[in-house]
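Dear Dr. V.,

Thank you for agreeing to look over these. As mentioned in my earlier message, I'm a first-year student in the group and I'm still getting used to reading structure tokens, so any feedback on how I've presented them would be very welcome. I ran two proteins. I've put each sequence directly above its structure. The first is here:
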Amino acid sequence: MSNDELLSFGLKDQSQNTTNEQTAHISMDKAEYDGNLEIQRMEANIGVIQAGKMSSRKMYIKNMQTGSKTVFVKVEYSISVPTKQTQITCSCQKEEFITVTTVSPFDVAVKLQSMKFEEIENIQAEEPFILLPELTCTSPWPVEFKSSQLQMPTNIQSTDEETVSQIQGVCLNKKECATECFCLITKSTSQTSTSLGTYTVSWRRKWDSDVELPFVTTSFPLPVVNIEHIPISVDLRLPAYGSVKQLLPLCYVIHNRTSYPQEMEVSMEPNDNFMFSGNKQIHFRVLPGKPYNLMYNLFPLMAGHLLLPKLAVNMVRYPGTIDPIVQKMLPSHVFIKPTGKTLSAGV
């Protein structure tokens, strides 16, 4: 007859490896990790097991680092053996070792793009840019995402009033990827570089079981980028599309980012796609913190994805240096629809 049995479960050589306390967490019967102290060894009394019967317990392990760990499962029990004169109690134990390999569930790659969706390495002060975190599943099991969040420094903020996770409820299989898109802007600062903060993802392994696994959070540091301080910025306000031989109004808004008035020289270079009305060449002054509007009316001559007339910008204080920067800010093309045919009244 078997008496009470004691089941032990944990990490091998925990007394010799002091780093286990920071790299692994185990639980029994229920997957509970967050908010609890990390445990390296658990014991449970599983009672008396009658001959021919079976008892089972579920055990969970959460590794905080990739690599291999050895897990032990130990059963200590006693058996009473009757003899002719008395009953002998034998104390026994059985121990098994399992090597568990932990892999990274997904990789995160971060890209920076301008508002024209062109890849950039540096960001500009007080100008919006796009942050694209791309998650690629490397797990042999599907990974389910609950939410994501950006923790940004004080000099970086979102252009949206409310930022919603774009991967909520998404499930990725191995080699599949998902990308989020955040539009951010830097505040006025004298810093020449800044960290973009931290990207945090809440996720879990998805499996077909009645057991509900908890979501865990993983944080990834975002890169440190250089901040370019430019004296002016130019925005172009134009319709999403135009039509052949119909008026297409444009408005260039020039912002002075410095604390001094700036003398500007602007010229509009025509092309074969449009006729336009407005100042072909103009000299003006932009006051600090005050926008200056340049209005043009374009008349499309053909249909398609057409190159816009180029607005060449020059600053008297910084001659020949600002135009290449301005061209990266401005859209270069616009879509022009063909003129539709009008049906006759008798059709």
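The second protein is here, in the same arrangement:
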Amino acid sequence: MKGMEGDLPSYLRDVAESRKAGLSPEKCIIYASERIRDPTFSKVVKAFSNQLEWGVPLRKIYENLSQTVKSFSALIHFRILIEAIESGGGYTASLEILAQSSESSYNTEMEKKSMLRPYFFIAFMVTVLSAFTTLMVAQTFSGISENLQTDVPGGAPSPKPASEEGLSQSKLFAIGISGQAWMTGFLIGKISTGTFATGFKYAIILLIITVLAIVVTQELHLSPSSLLGSPQA
């Protein structure tokens, strides 16, 4: 509901300014609903104005809005708008305060997002780097365990496949990192937008990146020793 929350302050400002011009509260809502806005928000406010023109009670209009509008902030402002019109006749001061409150809330939310955006980037980078480094270290320990088990006393080491213990350790690390990426995505989404829907999207992105890291490290046998080069005898 990003478009709705973005257009709500200007909508309430249009209602307040129309009321200052002397229009009735109902006419103010109808006039403000005719402005070109986000398609999702326009659909909601046009339904609002149409029901007003048809004579639907304000309480019933709010019940209908609550079934279509999923933004908690937008529902609160619509509720206050309806209460201001129903109880006080839509005084200019009340509508002005409501418009200012909506604008202040929107500006605060945008400032919070802009301040937290660098930290979201850091969270993504930390998750990706921790996935690669942890899997590379796990690959190194698996290689060490394999060498210890395949060395033959008094002769050259005989190559053998990786032990089941090493494979289970790698799988355990992979599962743990995948779970961490999934929870980190949910946390980032919840902090950024306040909803788990965005967190689900971020969680999927981080999980895909983590799975790619697992595949790359396992298929290419990446480890610190392979990147730095084995010491020559």
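From my reading of the second output: The chain has two domains: 2-90, 113-228. The CA atoms of residues 30 and 49 lie 5 Å apart. Does that match how you would interpret it?

Kind regards,
E.
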